[in-house]
Amino acid sequence: MERRKFIFVAASGVTTMIIPLGFYSCSNLKYDSAFAKPILLSNIWDTQIIAEIGELYQKQYPKENTEQELVEILSEGISMEKNDISESITSRIEEDFKTGKIVTLDGWILSETEGRQCALFSLIQPK
Which helix H or strand E contains 57, and what residues bound it? Predict the structure, then answer.
């Protein structure tokens, strides 16, 4: 085999292996699980209903139907310290209701934040 051809084949092989690894490492989102746990709603609903409501939210708001998009929206302006996340989300839910940021899903009136939490929950559930 010629040296030039060998270098080309070797470089192609390395590139073929590196590109998928790069995409894989970029797509692994790391975030606190509190973003996907609608604490207030879990007091009245089981996980199946939360997931179903989350799927309805995704259909009604198709621009917010990916895990990455929902995590970005939910984490916006929130400190990433463990105790602050749950408190911040609860405060945001209260603020949503005060400011009229609500959604109606299957007859339920939820804050936008709760709808997003349900959507994120439904996306990470095993199918």
Answer: helix 47-60
